[in-house]
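Students often ask what a holo structure prediction actually looks like on paper. The answer is less mysterious than it sounds. You provide the chain, you provide the ligand, and the output is a string of discrete structure tokens encoding the 3D arrangement of the protein together with magnesium ion.
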Amino acid sequence: MKSYKLGVLSGDGIGPEIVSATVDVFKAAAEKLDVKFNWTDLPMGWEAIDKYNDPTPQVTKEALLQCDGWIMGPHDSAAYPEEHKAKRNPSGELRHTLDLYANVRPAKTMPGTKSVVGEADLVIYRENTEGFYTDRNMYVGTGEWQITEDVVVSTGVFTRKAVERIAHAAFKMAMQRRKKVTIVHKANVIKLGTGLFKRVCLEVAQQYPEVTVDDYHIDAMTAHLVRRAKDFDVIVTENMFGDILSDLAGELVGSLGLAPSINTNENQAMAQAAHGSAPDIAGRNIANPIGIMLSTVMLMDWLSERHNDQKLSELGKLVENGINKTLEDGVKTGDLGGSASTSEFAEAIVDRIKSAV
Ligand code: ATP
Ligand code: MG
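The corresponding structure tokens follow.
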């Protein structure tokens, strides 16, 4: 039987608490379904600064390439020592150096939580390597120029190659879902850049004739999302629009603390919650681990498809059902109005996984 090697990057702030809760839950599910995981802790963020004076050390990056996938806790890079601030943050560094070009961010209503838009089940495909976040891009460097003390030019980069691959990823997912893709851009104003994004997505759409396609300007899209979130299935957009739209979508259907994401290319996948390191509540065992747990469920689905191993998606489903059952039973962390601690919440999920039939 194959054993899957999974990297564990605990992260900063609430990271270690929510990541260890996640590992406990997945260990219980793996035991139940007789799946072998080899969990490997790797230093990143504060832990790596202490050990190697580098928040994203080369040894960790190399070790990640030997993993089948990994979980990454959030990082508090704003608090790192001055010498590290000019570098990319850990998440940006991995997305860029490993070319994890697709940031997949679902927004789905969950039981026992409040949604301001009623039932919704959509997924945002955010291009993760260029667009308006040109952080050390090969064409334009930082993408920002100080012209005079009081004038700055900030730019965006759009390439056919990057748009084609994110569009294919989005359309492939749509084929497995409700067969609908919405392209989000601002081609009436940023005519060349987001115009290319729209045009190339529409070209890729030709290869998926069963998929219905529509498109909106980013500003109009925020209104449509609030008014009729349930009508959307797969949304594809550039980096910054996707970042903002997915925070909005996550909060609309429940809370940012519940929102999962995965960063992928053809060979690697990194599970990462949408929220940050929440330093204000770190170390108190009260953070909500659902975002990172559901991100790890997404990692299971990705691994399942890549290795053609149905057991892994079953395992993900078992965890997801465990989380839903726990919420339905009224066990919740403080941010959702409950009183369970992070570890109590994880134990409640483990109990439900063990007793699942
Ligand atoms: P970053 O720049 O790292 O993304 P941020 O400024 O977006 O950080 P977060 O760290 O996401 O901020 O925190 C925003 C607020 O949400 C804080 O009050 C924090 O306590 C709360 N929060 C974030 N994640 C969780 C969680 N998993 N459980 C409970 N509360 C959370
Ligand atoms: Mg944030």
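Residues 14, 74, 257, 275-278, 280-281, 287-288, 291, 335 surround adenosine-5'-triphosphate (ligand 1) (CB under 6 Å).
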